[in-house]
Predict the structure.
Amino acid sequence: MSAARHTVAAAISAAAVDAGIALDTQQRLLVDRLANLEEHRRTRRSSIQRGLYIYGSAGRGKTWLADAFYDASPTARKARVHFHGFFEELHRRVHEHRDDPESLRLGIDGVVGDSELLYFDELHVHDSGDARLLTRLLEYVLARRISVLATSNYAPDDLLPNPIWHQLFERGITLIKNHFDVHHLSGQTDYRTSVRGHAVGFAAGTWTTLPSDRPSVDTETVVLTVRGRRFEVQSERDGHLQASFGQLCDAPVSTIEYLTWARMFPRWTISDVPTFDVADEEAQQRFINLVDILVDEDIAVTFTSNHTLPVFCTAATASRPDAFRMTSRMQLIRPTP
């Protein structure tokens, strides 16, 4: 094993020991693939492969191992982007260059900067517009010979699964399959179901079941403004945002607002969470997006509902197949009476 491979593999293994994590067989295989990526990044070999695409079911350790690799890689020229954060920043930077015909290229350049390693966490494609932007991003980083690490719940061929739109991302899928080492992390255990170290961040959150006949909540509201748009919430004070599911998900709130508030408020309370079988599809998708962001920003959340967490998760997966990532993440929090 080369020095580059050994160094990063040893650092990931040491991080696992420090965290009290015993890597399983499949995870150790992934450590070897990550070590290969670091060796390629350092040597700049002429191999056609420029990255590593890791996919697998939720809760198998993809993000933890990728984060450990990112921390272990010694280069200072690296960037970590999350799906929602990437698009929020890209749209903002493209808007800054809106009068330039090269606005998209300039926007991507602003996000990626001078990075020689780009880590893209939670890559998934469900929107035709996102497909176009991701394809351009892939073309950009490959042309610049940037090493790319991506995690996803979807095999490359399963990205943008809607058959009406799938062909719009076929170019992106081909780029991934031709230029990335594609690795399936195929462990059988969802480790989030066994995590009980509820100490900080999202894992410190709770799900509280309230009686269905409780008195209605205070109807007074305050208004938050993001980029000129006004949104009603129940309250915001001392770093604590309180809002109902209806205010956050029934209203036309975007990931831009969720990201903004997640960076403003380290504590959240989301009240009156219904089951997905009584929420419309747009509200369901907003809640899925919101949970993604709250987990990535590591926000402590108190959820309140008339339904237990298992009932909520069962109804969510029954209502839409792509809710599996969200329901896995909800296993990090603890239910309370």
In short: The chain is about 45% helix and 20% strand. Residues 199 and 249 are 27 Å apart (CA to CA). Residues 25-43 form the longest helix (19 residues).
